[in-house]
Design goal:
It contains 3 helices and 6 strands. It has 125 residues and is an alpha+beta fold. It has a domain of 72 residues. It has a two-stranded antiparallel sheet. A two-stranded antiparallel sheet has the order 2-3. 12% of the residues are buried.
């Protein structure tokens, strides 16, 4: 039995026109990939401002469901609930500017919890 040995060495094109076409093609591929990734990211992760506004509205609706919500006086629709990883409103935990935990026990709140308001905040854990 005879073994055939093959080896292949890549030789880049030396013709300037071919080099230009190879580089142009590589740049085009990079641009197409960048556009696809950018559009996908925009669709999957909408604007943080829109998310914060929606979270604020949902949390204000939750606050309205409580009687005597004096402990939540700093829940104010004119101020976002999160500032990065820091919660600006009592009883919240935030990660990257989004509400991840609502922890209201021990605040003396009474009333029925508006579960729909909580369900409207997709980043809650």
């Amino acid at each position: 039995m005879t073994k055939i040995s093959t080896s292949f060495t890549f030789q880049p094109p030396t013709n300037p026109l071919l080099l230009c076409l190879v580089h142009a093609n590589a740049h085009l591929h990079a641009i197409v990939i960048f556009v696809i990734v950018s559009v996908t990211m925009c669709c999957l992760f909408p604007s943080a401002d829109a998310s914060l506004e929606s979270d604020s509205k949902s949390l204000m609706k939750l606050k309205e469901s409580f009687v005597g919500a004096d402990a939540l006086l700093n829940w104010n629709a004119s101020q976002p609930p999160c500032d990065g990883d820091k919660a600006a409103w009592t009883g919240l935990r935030c990660v990257n500017g989004t509400v991840t935990i609502v922890q209201l026990e021990g605040l003396g709140l009474r009333g029925l919890v508006d579960v729909d308001a909580l369900a409207a905040i997709p980043t809650l854990r």
